[in-house]
Design goal:
The chain contains 20 helices and no strands. By secondary structure, the protein is mainly alpha-helical. It has 4 domains: 198 residues, MFS general substrate transporter like domains (Growth Hormone, Chain: A); 55 residues, no CATH class; 200 residues, Growth Hormone, Chain: A (Up-down Bundle); 48 residues, no CATH class. The longest helix has 40 residues. The N terminus and C terminus are likely disordered.
Length: 517
């Protein structure tokens, strides 16, 4: 029975299945970031404030985070193919309704439904790929899936900006409809499924586990998404949600480790390899989404780029990732997975540290090449980390493992964006206060600087226009320094993950051990 279950998605044509499954995941992952650049347009069209419109993002992320970890249980209970088709159909229908939403409250509710429907697409899609390929070819399966998981977040802002500027913000949702319809027609004949692993009536549903998952992850996602705007724990709401999340998470661990059929199989964390790869995947999401948030924000805020132009800084990096993913996929059966991951961590950390050399007049080409260098690290991380994660997982636990690994990447991304935004704000305030201390007559350099600014503005050194110009330049320089601090912090944190590789067993992607030295 286990063998049949392990090969539930197997087919004679796995290379046809791979792009279909990856496209479904690509569609869902891209929707996490595609709406970001359209928020001002959504706010204007639906007569709401910019702050209110951000709930379009939050509602999606909350429900997506709740469904993702229980997708393994849902797949085991109702069948993987059935769940996959339901998620695609629900996501497509919700996308259509989002594109037709008449007001903001309706759009927020529909985005929540879209996030819930999409919550199963990533983990179930990866599980299907893992079981469609033999162990020695899973590196290539991970490479195909990596195109969706790693490239989609960088394509989203570019496509969203282009659609919004040239057509209408509603097309960022409506574009999913023909893709979803085509996927349904392809999935039905291509993917084979032996049905549920166990009948739903053969055991009781872990409702307490589901409740703790929903409460802990839902509250945490709101804290991460809204914390910076609310000044974190100075806000009673954020503090209450954080306490509720921590309490529910502690109860979730106790409940799931003691339940026979848990909603979230936390017993997988007892495997050291899986636990370490969970942390590494969390950091991959942290770096990927954090840097993807920072670079477009830098170009738009300090260099005056349009949303489309800012997205074009990211696009060549996505192409580099696509080209490298198959090469890394082929190498995981030949090279120790720890070495490949170490290469990715070093390149990723170094590329982020190199970003500390950018300045206000930096060229488009230099930013593009720095992003390409960051993107080169991603295949060396995504493919071997996934290979390590599934290396010691029993076939009947593939669904559960995939749910946790995808949850790690997505929540790592949420933490990365929230962390980057917080560092940006706090360090800008710090640098501004330090720079302002130097803007006074007792500083020998200040009179010459005020005279230069006044000359450019055609005003006296102590005129209001000159003082306003000095302040504007001070804010700009403080903001620049805060971005540099952010990139430096991300790079150091990334390099700090290298010692974790010492906790992972030697081995290649196909499961063949390396000779001891």
């Amino acid at each position: 029975m286990n063998t049949a279950v392990a090969r539930a998605a197997a087919s004679d044509i796995p290379w046809v299945i791979a792009p279909v499954v990856a496209l479904a995941a690509f569609m869902e992952i891209m929707d996490i970031s595609i709406a970001n650049v359209a928020l001002p347009h959504i706010a204007g069209a639906l007569s709401s404030s910019q702050n209110e419109s951000t709930w379009v993002l939050t509602s999606y992320l909350v429900t997506n985070a709740v469904v993702m970890p229980i997708s393994g249980w849902l797949a085991n209970t109702f069948g993987r193919k059935r769940l996959f088709l339901t998620c695609i159909a629900g996501f497509t229908l919700a996308s259509l309704l989002c594109g037709l939403a008449p007001n903001l409250p309706t759009l927020i509710v529909l985005r929540a439904l879209q996030g819930a429907a999409g919550g199963g697409l990533q983990p179930v899609g990866q599980a299907i790929l893992a079981d469609s390929f033999p162990a020695e070819k899973r590196g290539m399966a991970s490479a195909v899936y990596g195109i969706a998981a790693v490239v989609a977040p960088t394509v989203g802002p570019t496509l969203g900006g282009w659609l919004t500027d040239n057509y209408d913000w509603r097309w960022i949702f409506l574009i999913n409809v023909p893709v979803g319809a085509a996927l349904i027609m392809l999935v039905i004949p291509l993917i084979k499924d032996s049905g549920p692993q166990r009948g739903a009536s053969s055991f009781s549903v872990d409702w307490w586990g589901f409740g703790f998952v929903a409460l802990s992850l839902g509250c945490l996602q709101v804290v991460l998404d809204r914390g910076q705007d609310a000044d974190w724990f100075s806000s009673p709401l954020i503090a209450t949600l954080a306490i509720a999340s921590a309490t529910a998470f502690a109860l979730l661990i106790w409940r799931e480790l003691s339940h026979e059929h848990p909603m979230v199989d936390l017993r997988l964390m007892k495997n050291p390899d899986f636990a370490v790869t969970f942390v590494l995947m969390l950091m991959l999401g942290f770096m990927l989404f954090g840097s993807t948030f920072l670079l477009p924000a830098y170009t738009q805020q300090l260099m005056g780029y349009r949303a489309v132009d800012a997205g074009m800084v990211l696009t060549p990096g996505g192409i580099a990732t696509i080209l490298l993913l198959p090469l890394v996929g082929r190498s995981i059966n030949k090279v120790d997975l720890r070495i490949l991951t170490g290469i990715g961590l070093v390149i990723g950390g170094a590329s982020l540290l190199l970003m500390t050399n950018v300045y206000l007049g930096v060229s488009f080409s230099r930013l593009m090449w720095l992003r390409i260098l960051q993107s080169i690290a991603l295949p060396f991380l995504f493919v071997p980390i996934n290979a390590m994660a599934f290396r010691g997982v029993p076939p009947d636990k593939t669904n559960n493992a995939s749910a946790l690994i995808n949850l790690a990447r997505n929540f790592g991304g949420s933490i990365g964006i929230s962390f980057a935004a917080t560092v940006l704000t706090r360090r800008a305030q710090f640098h501004q206060s330090r720079l302002v201390e130097q803007l006074q007559p007792l500083n020998p350099a200040y009179p010459d600087y005020a005279h230069q600014v006044g000359s450019m503005l055609g005003a006296a050194p102590d005129a209001p226009a000159t003082l306003a110009g000095i302040y504007a330049q001070t804010v700009q320089q403080a903001t620049l320094l805060s971005y540099l601090d952010d990139f430096k912090t991300l790079g150091i944190l990334f390099l700090a993950m290298l010692p974790l590789l010492l906790l992972v067993k030697k081995g290649k992607g196909g499961g063949s051990p390396l000779a001891a030295h």
